[in-house]
Amino acid sequence: MTQIPSNQAPSNPGPRPETNAVMKLVGQYDSPFVRRAAIALHHHGVAFERHVISTFAHLDENLAINPLGKVPTLLLSDGTPVFDSRLIVEYLEAGAAAEKRLTVSDPADYIAMLQLEAVGIGLAEKTYERGIEFARRAPGTQDMAWVERLERQIASSLVWLEARSRPGTLVSDRLTRADLAVATAATFLSEKQPQLYDRERYKGLDGHRRFCEALPSFEAAAYSASEAKATGWRPEP
Ligand SMILES: N[C@@H](CCC(=O)N[C@@H](CS)C(=O)NCC(=O)O)C(=O)O
User: Fold this and answer.
1) Burial 128-156 (b: 16+ CB within 10 A, else e)
2) Residue 162 has pLDDT above 90, yes or no
3) Percent of the chain with pLDDT over 70
4) E strands present in 66-118
5) pLDDT for res 155
6) Span from the CA of 108 to the centroid of ligand 1 (angstroms)
7) Which residues of 95-116 are buried (b: 16+ CB within 10 A; e: fewer)?
8) In the chain, what's the furthest Cα-to-Cα distance?
9) Could you tell me what percent of the chain has a pLDDT over 90?
């Protein structure tokens, strides 16, 4: 593998607070991916504006910003697009002071954090895919074998997360990337497909979700049903 010579590697590639122009976050706050990026921005104290457009209603504009036409994209103050929520979180972490980092350093905690983050993001992806089956297809034309598979994956993830959840942060006393991923995914499922989210059965997970949603960085990027409805999202019949 080619090594980047150390004198060419960026020493601090993260956001530069001294710039005057404000970054813009593209996307709506019903998306767990957009919310995760926004929560990380608030947590790190990075000033940003929002550009509230939908991946479906505004595909042309999204394709001009992000080759995949997906949200979120973070437009840096010089207009450079940073797309995919994972990369946005990574970018912010790279420039963060040690005491604000959302990434733990203890090796055992690090693996646990990555596992929880991966399952949280995966749960959000599976919830999204299932939603598409109902939101984008004519009634009666859903691929029910696919829906059943998605529901099994969602249920399995919920059981796995419940076994590791508590009404507080998940892997350390501090907020981590795992908390951002798991709590936003649980809120997304509970809001969009509440029939799959039994608050009694997933009590620990729901306690964790409610703990996180009450934090200032989460409240500043609260789930928004109205943004989704404004661009055409409707609940499942
Ligand atoms: N891996 C992406 C996933 C983002 C994603 O799937 N966003 C949805 C909206 S919630 C989207 O843009 N979907 C449109 C599409 O997949 O074409 C990330 O983490 O940013």
Assistant:
1) bebbebbbeeeeeeeeeeeeeebeebbee
2) yes
3) 92
4) 73-75, 81-83
5) 98
6) 30
7) bbeeeebbbbeeeebeebbbeb
8) 60
9) 82
Average pLDDT on 48-56 reads 95
Q: CA end-to-end span of the chain, whole Å?
A: 52
- 85 CB less than 6 Å from ligand 1? yes
Which residue among 56, 71, 192 is best mutated to probe the pocket of ligand 1, counting the most ligand atoms within 8 A of its Cβ?
A: 71
The answer to whether residue 6 scores a pLDDT higher than 60 is no
CA distance 218 to 215: 5
Q: What is the 3-state secondary structure (H, E, C) of 175-214?
A: CCHHHHHHHHHHHHHHHHCHHHCCCCCCHHHHHHHHHHHC
One of 1.20.1050.10, 3.90.550.10, 2.30.110.10, 1.10.10.10 is the CATH number of 107-219, namely 1.20.1050.10
Residue type at 73 in one-letter notation = T
Asked if pLDDT for residue 203 goes beyond 70, the answer is yes
The reply to whether ligand 1 has any atom less than 6 angstroms from the CB of 184 is no
pTM score of the predicted model: 0.92
Residue 131 pLDDT grade (very low, low, confident, very high; cuts 50, 70, 90): very high
Strand partners, 27: none
| pLDDT tier, 14 (very low <50, low <70, confident <90, very high otherwise) | low
What is the residue whose two structure tokens read 């990075």? Answer: 46
Q: Which residue has the tokens 């929002």?
A: 50
